[in-house]
Amino acid sequence: MTRYDPAALDDTHDPARQSWVTSANDPAGDFPLQNLPWCVLRAEEGARVCVRIGDRLLPVAPVAAAGLLRDGAGRPFEEELFAGDHLSPALLSLPPARRRALRAALADLLDARASAGTAAAVGAHLREVGELLTPIRVGDYTDFYASVHHATHVGMMLRPEQPLMPNYKWLPVGYHGRASSVRASGEPVRRPSGQRAPAAEGEAPSFGPCQMLDYELEVGAVIGRGNDLGAPLTLEGAEEALFGLCLLNDWSARDLQRWEYQPLGPFLAKNFLTTISPYVVTMEALAPFRAPLEARPAGDPAPLPHLRGELDARAGGVAARLRVTLSTARSREAGAPAQRLSEADFRLMYWSFAQMAAHHTSSGCDLRPGDLLGSGTVSGPTREARGCLLELTWDGAVGSPLPTTSRTPIAVEATGEQRRFLLDGDEVTLEGWCERAGARRVGFGRCVGRVVG
Questions:
Q1: Which of 35, 40, 337, 410 is the residue whose CA sits 20 to 30 A from 396?
Q2: Phi and psi of 5, rounded to 5°?
């Protein structure tokens, strides 16, 4: 049996390949022939499972129904794989070899070298990009805390004498998020209500709308094949279980979180909305950008055997750049562009997604097709790489915990406004892309949410 290698390259990654969909050939675009991310389009006749190519969408079911979608041996991909209003469990569960064959078949149909007849037959099914739905039916959602830079920054605010808890460097810390409130980009962000900490010792907590609303820059991993209950995944098996990645915004109510998080962790502060980008970029498309995670500092413990392996050490990370921008109601009225808040390197994580999935299942827990794993806030060592307002407005001060008034606000350059946390009308956009010499740029699209009160 051939060993699975997430960094293996084939003809689909050839940067010289171009598409007869000419918009896909823009070297600065997110969606070249070498990407082909999955998404779901709302259409008059019902939802359509599609791949994105340039500025168009290709519904895959009718292409399969027409007998056009076949692997290298001539075997067809059945139309039923692409039915429904989400990526189907059958599609997500395809073994890696079959996923690669499907990717190759789609790339061949859209390649500039395809025959005129093939291009015409496939082109008849292309659609404009319209309203995109949540691409997966999320059965379960687990959010991790895998950036040591983020964990250290937050820990310094709350526990300056011991920023990281003793377990952090031994296991991927996570909590069970709320699957029912995961939505696609564009969903309005409604300010949650909940209890806030008492103003003084001995007083009662208050109840009302969140006053410290924050975003969190994250990456989400979509589970493919999963595992049976009681059958933990090995580290390599966990890598094989990953279907693809998306952008993820784990909206957070910091004032609610501060009051409720002990002793069992986040609850209302996290369950009101999680936004994901509408595109799932496959692990196969990301193969050219697999890389080691940031080297652990000298003296840090090596992971335990079930979280340690040569493959993960060599290619457990993904070299992706992630950016956050903010526009306010006033800046949009003034016609000003969105302001960049931060930009981070996803390779600087302490734990890989394979380690997260392997740890998740090490107790015997089963992961299922369509389950979602969040990376936790992606941050770096510099201020410009901090992935949420909690970190950005802290700006190096030490306290336990810091009151809002002692935080350093963000200046909105176009209007002179200031932000410590999000106000109504604020729109946060996450973007992500991978690029390196000798490969075509691959993008994740945009993950957008506007606070509506």
A1: 337
A2: -130, 110
Q: What is the pTM of this model?
A: 0.95
Instruction: Taking residues 234-249, report their average pLDDT.
Output: 97
Overall average pLDDT of the 83-95 stretch? 96
DSSP sequence for 415-435: TTEEESS--TT-EEEEEEEE-
Given 149, 150, 359, 360, the catalytic residue: 150
pLDDT at residue 191 is higher than 90: yes
Measure the CA–CA gap between 114 and 127, rounded to whole angstroms.
19
Cβ 421 vs Cβ 251: under 8 Å: no
Q: Where, residue-wise, is CATH 2.30.30.230 in the chain?
A: 20-128
Instruction: Choose the CATH number for 141-450 among 3.40.50.300, 3.90.850.10, 2.60.120.830, 3.40.50.720.
Output: 3.90.850.10
For the record, the structure tokens of 329 come out as 């109601």
What pLDDT, on the 0 to 100 scale, is given for residue 395? 54
Q: What share of the chain in percent tops pLDDT 70?
A: 97
Question: Is-contact 152 117, C-beta < 8 A?
Answer: no
Our answer to whether residue 359 is catalytic in this structure is: no
Q: Cis bond leading into 172, ω under 30°?
A: no
Domain(s) of CATH 3.90.850.10: residues in the chain: 141-450
DSSP letter string over 196-231?
E--SSTTSPPEEEE-SSEE--EEEEEEE-S---TT-
CATH number of this structure's domain 20-128: 2.30.30.230
User: Going by DSSP bridges, is the β-strand pair 410-412/290-291 parallel, antiparallel, or unpaired?
Assistant: unpaired
- Residue type for position 77: F
Position 399 pLDDT exceeds 50: no
